[in-house]
UniProtKB/TrEMBL annotation, chains A, B:
One of its GO terms (molecular function) is hydroxymethylglutaryl-CoA lyase activity. This is Hydroxymethylglutaryl-CoA lyase. Pfam families: HMGL-like. PANTHER family: HYDROXYMETHYLGLUTARYL-COA LYASE. InterPro entries: Aldolase_TIM, HMGL, PYR_CT. Keywords: Lyase, Metal-binding. It comes from the Bacteria. SUPFAM superfamilies: Aldolase (SSF51569).
Length: 299, 299
């Protein structure tokens, strides 16, 4: 096993976590919570989504959240942006990084974005170009890379083609999502083996879900391939939209436990992350991390 | 990553799982359940424990269980045996394999067995010798290899010395336990690196707990070191005795999901294991596997 001793964790709880909660967390609580995360030593927080509120009402307060949080100069504050209207809103509140998203599965993309992949790409290209003009970095989420709830296995060539298009339009980093948490370590090795023939490892981040318990094993393989960027959500927030009650996003606290014990430096204080998980726990249903289960047992 | 395409899974649910349940499962249910497991394609089931019933009342029916289960000739039926009285009972019902146990931590051993390690070893040696005379194979559980709830880190030299003594007294296989589920993949690599200098990999099995979510990542590393024997419990049965509500034994169903998807052959039918988990779920509290959470979401 050969791995970098430094890893960047991108905290996606406030966006990917909260968008899967049935109830909206009060805006003031979100702000206080994000401020706690800002003080944890993390270098990156995806704070919300500028999609139309009718699609994700839980995040309809994106503008207010972005305006009222205390900005830590060491943190990149990112948000999801689906189109030019969303970008306008994101730029108004001076978001640091713009996150685009599409799916590697045609069916999933249609169900999620209401457009074919071919029709999504020009929209993303225009958002990317405008973001760059505004001196923003751009991140591209590619979902269902390791399997789709509708189509099953996804051809890696399709993933490569989409990644190539995103990088060509100026995207700075790709986050490869195991949206339904089906990936196994051998598959992660196989997919990365292929992708790294075309793309430098610095351009890739992994976004694993722990639905079937394999997320940390998958992280381990990605580390071995030189990947140093990982997405995760405080407390395993958000659950799985395709299996209610199951785990969704890899929990930041579980990821930190493994990485820190392995001697990998993240810059993040585990205690602060646990405090942030305990804080948001009052407002949500779906905390599923192992560290939170242990904490609850000690109460 | 380099791993064997064939792995043996040792099902410890009926012993290690049920001994951590607060209520005793009715004997008839245990028997039917073990019969289901016998038909799953598994090659090994640890069916009970011949410790004194006052210590583990949940398993006081070991003799009746052993007598009444239907023996599949392809399955090794094992049981925990603490001393010569236990061995007598185990031999009476013709158990195939005798499992000894002790801890790599002095304090944990004292709390668990009420003896020092030095005082435990001669007892185990006598049980091992008598088992061999009765043509039984012998397995040795070494617990707290990766950390102790009382002593913290355990010196690997201590583990090596205990393993050496067990093998010298004729033990056929050692099961190295992460009793409180603290191990991380780098630690597993480090410990195996040392152990494999002294012992052939065929003599070692890994017994991981998933308390902090790292069990499958730890399995992956052990696979990479050529280990092909892993303990697990159907449905993640049993929980963690040191953190109520947290996960304990690595779940057989989660392990099968990962291994089979990686192309590793176990001979075990996943559907049968899920059926066995659904069966025992009626009697227990602590099913914590990811596969069971997904199943529940689909009901």
């Amino acid at each position: 096993m050969d791995f970098s001793n430094k890893v960047s964790i991108k905290e996606v709880g406030p966006r990917d976590g909260l968008q899967n909660e049935s109830e909206m967390v009060p805006t003031d609580a979100k702000i206080e919570w994000i401020n706690m995360l800002s003080d944890s030593g993390t270098s990156y927080i995806e704070i919300s989504s500028f999609v139309h509120p009718k699609w994700i009402p839980q995040l309809k307060d994106a503008t207010e959240v972005a305006k009222k949080i205390k900005r830590n100069p060491n943190v990149t504050y990112a948000a999801l942006v689906p189109n030019s209207t969303g970008l306008e809103r994101a730029l108004e509140v001076n978001i640091d990084e713009v996150c685009l998203f599409l799916s590697a599965s045609e069916t999933h993309n249609k169900k999620n974005i209401n457009k074919s992949i071919a029709d999504t790409l020009p929209v993303l290209e225009s958002v990317s170009t405008e973001s760059k003009k505004a001196n923003k970095t751009v991140r591209g989420y590619v979902s269902t890379v390791f399997g789709c709830p509708y189509e099953g296995d996804i051809d890696t060539d399709k993933v490569i083609s989409i990644c190539d298009k995103l990088l060509t339009m100026g995207v700075d980093e790709l986050s490869l999502g195991d949206t339904i948490g089906v990936a196994d370590p051998a598959q992660v090795a196989k997919v990365l083996e292929e992708l790294l023939r075309y793309f430098p490892k610095e351009k890739l981040a992994m976004h694993f879900h722990n639905t079937r318990g394999t997320a940390l094993a998958n992280v381990l393989v990605a580390l071995d391939y030189g990947i140093t960027n990982f997405d995760s959500a405080v407390g395993g927030l958000g659950g799985c939209p395709y299996a209610k009650g199951a785990s969704g996003n890899l929990a930041t606290d579980d990821l930190l436990y493994m990485l820190h014990r392995m001697g990998v430096v993240t810059g993040i204080n585990e205690k602060n992350i646990i405090e942030a998980a305990l804080y948001i726990e009052k407002y949500v249903k779906n905390l599923s991390s192992n560290q939170m289960k242990i904490l609850k047992s000690e109460r």
